[in-house]
Amino acid sequence: MRVSKEQAAENRRRVVEVASALFRERGFNGIGVADLMKEAGLTHGGFYGQFASKEDLAAEACTHAMEVAAERWRVSAEAKGDEALTALLDSYLSPRHRDRSAAGCPIAALGIDVARQGGVARSAFTRGLRPFLDGLSRLVPGRSAEAKRKAALTTLSEMVGALILARAVDDPALSEEILEAARTSLGRPPGKPEAGDA
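Request: output the structure for the sequence above.
Response:
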């Protein structure tokens, strides 16, 4: 049965959204095409009518996840004003974010997998990373654009690294310690962060 162009576009959008969450949760190799399509509520046969390969889907899902997360950061920064960096650190380096990889930061969830992928996924990741750095450059202190850029690179690297480590360890106390140490290092006083989605 043929589907309309509108339905095909909706199906594609749904597959990309589902893949975006599942790849962040399980990694690119952690789910096959058949299971991914099942999660999207579609048949396996429809995949190759929509995508040339799983790698092409990985690139598109990466782009989608990065765009959604960057927009969330931008909206939050505008809403928080002078407290934007504080709010971002509290949200990003929180137990809630650590425990919700499927809905969380694609940089931390996909970075390691992307490094092992081919060109299209890595290109999508690289393009998607730039808005995060640009946004952080506006929030971090610095006397020049170059100083702010370096501070943004350092801040993002520490945030992502801490989140990856906090997710990787099997000791809850150590995981909390990692998150708190990163928050403190980045200028937040010790204590519980605000709950939120980064």
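The first helix runs from residue 5 to 26.
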